[in-house]
Design goal:
Largest sheet: none
Strand content: under 5%
Number of domains: 1
Order of helices and strands: HHHH
Helix content: 40-55%
Radius of gyration: 13 Å
Length: 73
């Protein structure tokens, strides 16, 4: 799974609620507001003056680690 700037915030949240702290750390605290259901990550970052690339890097790192095969040691 790759998160892109044109994805809707609520879609990413629905993929995994574990992304909530990442949004919070990056300054997007209104995840339950109506805008989150229709606003892209890029639009939200622009409105709030946030670094979209940093947010995307963190979100994609989260999913990359999550998607790694689990090994039993």
């Amino acid at each position: 799974m790759v998160v892109t700037s044109d994805m809707i915030i609520s879609d990413v949240l629905n993929m995994d609620r574990g992304t909530i702290p990442i949004f919070f750390r990056n300054g997007l605290h209104c995840l339950g507001c109506a805008m989150a259901s229709g606003e892209t990550i890029e639009e939200a970052c622009a409105v709030h003056g946030l670094d979209c690339d940093l947010l995307l890097d963190e979100l994609n790192s989260f999913f990359e680690v999550k998607d790694l095969p689990q090994t039993n040691v």
